[in-house]
From TrEMBL:
It comes from the Bacteria. The gene is pgl. Residues 21-239 form the Glucosamine/galactosamine-6-phosphate isomerase domain. This is 6-phosphogluconolactonase. It comes from Leptospirillum ferrodiazotrophum. InterPro entries: 6-phosphogluconolactonase_DevB, 6PGL, Glc/Gal-6P_isomerase, NagB/RpiA_transferase-like. Keywords: Hydrolase.
Amino acid sequence: MTISPITRMGGSHVSLTLFSSREDWAEGAAREILSRIEAHLSTHRTVSIGLSGGTTPTPVLQNLAHEIMGWSDEKKRRILWFFVDERCVGPEDPQSNYRMVREALLTPGKIPGETVFRMRGEHPSAEEEALRYERLITELLGPSIPHPPTMDILLMGIGPDGHTASLFPGTSPEDDHHRLVISVPRQGDRVARISLTYRMLAWGGERLFLVAGADKKNILQKVLSGEGDLPSQWVLREAGSLGRPTRFLLDGASAPTS
Ligand SMILES: O=C1O[C@H](COP(=O)(O)O)[C@@H](O)[C@H](O)[C@H]1O
């Protein structure tokens, strides 16, 4: 599938893969993630993955759990699971990204707890927790100077307003300064959040956007049109300027028509 305006977003570094049904998408996306994990582990001791929340990734993570559950503990310990963002709620709250990931992937995949690095949404200070997570990332993945440490695979989503991770419309990479993780204040009904920054997302080895469902069709069309300053567009542009690839894994219902 080709969409010409996409070249304006991330140049040749952006590609789309379309799966016909939601079921094919969930299976195919899990296979894509798995093949990148295996490829990375064939040349590196460990692979780091950033997980997004919301509802879209659930069936993909369930399929991934099914593939990984039979692995030896030794091999499972070579995957380091991080979070792209979290809502400032407890780990049992229905809004918790960690809760969704635990139920879909960690528990069924029998993932060793010591390989999972969650953002503690229940911390009384989101800012302190963002700073702790930033330190954790640099300890585990490398220094933040001269550029952010690299998470090898970032699983990302797009919200109906074009947000990605917990970076919302009206923000831009200029707001990041030198941070890797930020706290995002509560706004209206939206609870406060903790999020990786644009820099951190752009420097990731590869971004896989998991997008499915008819309710994502319009926003995806807009994102890929190249016109605008939506957070997901900033990520594509910044990663593209670093020559880092981004791939969209779409189901038929979400795919743009032109
Ligand atoms: O708020 C969030 O939304 C986006 C998209 O979620 P979805 O439910 O529309 O798929 C998600 O990527 C992010 O992690 C989450 O916190």
